[in-house]
Amino acid sequence: MKLKVTFCLIMLVICFSVKAQNLVPNPSFEVYDTCPDDFAQIYKASRWFQPTQGTPDYFHNCTINSLLSTPNNIAGYQHPKTGSAYAGLSTFFNSPYNYENYREYIEIRLIEPLESGYKYCVEFNVSLCDSANYATDDIGAYLSIDSIVSDTFINFSYIPQIINNQGNYITDKLNWTLISGEYFANGGEKYITIGNFNNDANTDKIYVLSGSNDYLSDGYYYIDDISVILCDTTDGILDNYSHNNMQIFIHSDGIITVNLQNISDSFISIYNIIGQLILSTKINEKNLSINFNNQANGAYILMVKSQEKVITRNFILNK
Question: What is the pTM of this model?
Fold first, then answer.
């Protein structure tokens, strides 16, 4: 019986670790269905797709087409931020032809939906290609419950929750520039889409010196290392539970607070990763505070038992 309980506790910690992982399933485009052999093949990077008629590209050193390889390709020379691959997309397009508001986006379904009320750290890296003669500050990421798609090539009108700082024109062609932000989830968001969501009239751009190849000259960027990871809340709460007459708060400083309306026959217990009982006490007050900061860093399981229910929360102490 003890072995069974220990196994269950370990599985709970494993589940918590999965929850804290990067929710983007192929974050650096390393995994591919087949190697790219032509332009506009982002769909060959496993699970990524183009949501509009705009044509983002897939670069990987597995290709036999030197125009789509890394680090050297038709757009310029850039080592991947991680591994052997990256994506490429146009943020705007200056053309004498009828390509007003032309945009390219990349989109992917997350490993699991975001949870309501939690804060997520969202990051991705961009680098302006050598052949570009314009740079912009209008690159962002949009998180959505449903996939956003369009049968045109014009810009989406959505407002991205993660956006590059306005006025910070991304002109660096030698290094990768990190775009990051924090997002409080409404709950159920399952997709992330990256690109420029402004139309031509509202897209800020500046001229930069281009390389010798001007094939992709207008605001074309490489994209790599995308992540959506659960992060701490601004008030220092690592995890919380609130339902009816019970509230549980696990703070980043090791303080645990439990609020109960009915404390009769209520207990709190904390176990370590191998199922050993670290702390157990009867709840004698409606607002109980426990200082757990004197324990060693590691994964723990908190169990609160009341007359109404048993609640289990998982947390990692990292002082």
Answer: 0.70
